[in-house]
Structures are given as structure tokens and as C-alpha cells.
Design goal:
With about 260 residues, the protein is α/β, with parallel strands linked by helices. The chain contains 8 helices and 10 strands. The strands form 2 sheets. The protein has an 8-stranded parallel barrel, surrounded by 5 helices. Strands 8-9 form a two-stranded antiparallel ribbon. Helix 2 runs parallel beside helix 3 and helix 6 packs parallel to helix 7. The longest helix is centred in the middle third of the chain and has 21 residues. The protein is globular, with a radius of gyration of 17 Å.
Length: about 260
């Protein structure tokens, strides 16, 4: 089943109130709240205000989008605890984290072991707090490759460490289809956009531009329970959200997996 939604950092300049109103007005169901602007870690009052606002508008918090990166803390348990507390205040079932700052091909065995051990400790903390962790599927991190991501998940060995998924604009549609198939059983949420790279330049298109590709991706993920979260409008304007949301809702209706 698909739950449609938005990543709040798509509109960092807008308030939480404006984002909630926009999401509700265009028929989306959920929001991933970013930790950098809208709900900073350990700001309990803000998190509770956002939670109450979501409930009053019939919306769900799909995730807490943190910018915690594996491999950058000397005391991971201490540094990650504020994100866990904030996720609980928000009633977020998932916390998004990042798998370091090096691509999978750049990591030596010792570095990989350190990331594995840290991820295992954080996954244990998440289990005790009743949330799951999901790794951002992103270039220039350990999860820049589907097979490397799968090996890492298996090495950590916790059902509380999972994946986000998104198409990799640096790779071919064929690669992205295979990556989706490999990672679908381990995926919580998806970031949804239509991007391409052209000789090193990132091109951001209206969502409908990749309708054919996305309908193939959604067929792969259709057997699970996933939030489909719009990330960044092609023009960065909140006024464009209704148009983009309409495309996403059209897709979920067509595949018969909308919540």
C-alpha cells in the first residue's frame, strides 16, 4: 500500500503551518519532517506542536528526516539520542540517516567495519525506542550502489535498519529498475522526483516527465507498505505542489495501491 506525501525540506523557506496546509489541500497524506529547519532535534515543544497540527489535519508523519551521518561521531549513542527522542515526540515511525560521506567503492575494510558496528548500535537503540532507521539512498555515500547497500544491511543484521529508495540520476533506468528489485524487501519510504544528469549538470523536470519509469518502479514496490514522498519541485515553488501531487495521485490510483 502506498501513502503519498511530501519531504518538508522541499520548502525550507516555508513554515510548518504552510507546509501542512499545502499538503492537505492537494490530497497528500503524510510528511517527512526535516531535522535541519522545521523540527530541530531536542526541541520538544516544536515537535509536539507539529504532531498536534498533523493530527488536527488528518495527516501522518511518515518519518523524521535527520542529517545524522554514520562515521562522524565519537559517541554515537549520545549524539543520536536527541533524534530518537524527537522522533518519538513527532510520532515518527522511521528516522532517516545517512551512510557516511564516502562512496561504497572508496571504503576500505576497516572503515566499513566501523560503520557496520555503529549502525548495529544505533539499530539496537531504535529497536528499544520503537522506531526504525532507514538509510538515505544517495550518491557519495555507502548506499550509492544497490548491491553494496544490501551487503551492508546483511552485515548489520537488524530488521530495524532499513532503506529508503530513490532513482539514482547518475545511473541508467535499467540499473534503477534492478536496484529497486534488490532493495524493495528492505525499503520503508521512497523519495519521488524526476531528475537526470547531462554531462555533469543536474536537470530537474516536472514529475510527469518520468511517468513511464515511475510506473515501473511502483509495480516493484506495490506489494509493500511504503510512503511515496515528493522531494523538491522542479522549480522549488510550493505553488507547484498541487500539479506535482496530482501526478503522484494519478500513478497510485492507476496501480490500485493507494491508501
Amino acid at each position: 500500500m502506498f501513502r503519498t506525501g511530501l519531504v518538508s525540506i522541499s520548502f525550507r523557506k516555508n513554515t510548518a503551518e504552510e507546509i501542512v496546509a499545502a499538503v492537505r489541500s492537494c490530497g497528500l497524506r503524510s510528511i517527512e519532517w526535516g531535522s535541519d529547519v522545521h523540527v530541530p532535534p531536542d526541541e520538544k515543544q516544536k515537535a509536539l506542536e507539529v504532531r498536534a497540527m498533523m493530527q488536527a489535519n488528518g495527516l501522518q508523519t511518515a518519518a523524521y528526516g535527520s542529517y545524522y551521518r554514520l562515521g562522524e561521531s565519537t559517541d554515537p549513542e549520545k549524539d543520536f539520542a536527541p533524534y530518537l527522542r524527537t522522533a518519538q515526540w513527532l510520532d515518527a515511525p522511521v528516522i532517516r540517516i545517512w551512510a557516511g560521506r564516502q562512496g561504497s567503492s572508496e571504503l576500505d575494510g576497516a572503515a566499513l567495519d566501523r560503520l557496520t558496528g555503529e549502525a548495529r548500535r544505533l539499530a539496537h537503540m531504535a529497536e528499544e525506542s520503537g522506531v526504525r532507521l532507514s538509510l538515505e539512498c544517495h550518491p557519495n555515500t555507502l548506499t550509492d550502489d544497490a548491491e553494496a547497500s544490501l551487503r551492508f544491511l546483511r552485515a548489520v543484521g537488524s530488521p530495524f535498519l532499513t532503506m529508503y529508495w530513490q532513482p539514482n540520476q547518475n545511473r541508467s533506468p535499467e540499473y534503477n529498475l534492478q536496484a529497486a528489485k534488490l532493495l524493495a524487501p528492505f525499503t520503508t519510504n521512497l523519495h519521488v522526483f524526476s531528475w537526470e544528469m547531462d554531462h555533469g549538470e543536474l536537470l530537474r523536470f516536472p514529475l510527469r516527465h518520468h511517468s513511464d519509469r515511475w510506473q515501473q518502479y511502483l509495480q516493484i514496490f506495490g506489494g509493500g507498505d511504503h510512503a511515496l514522498l515528493l522531494e523538491f519541485m522542479h522549480d522549488d515553488r510550493i505553488e507547484t505542489l498541487p500539479e506535482t501531487a496530482a501526478t503522484l495521485l494519478e500513478w497510485t490510483t492507476a496501480c490500485g495501491a493507494a491508501d
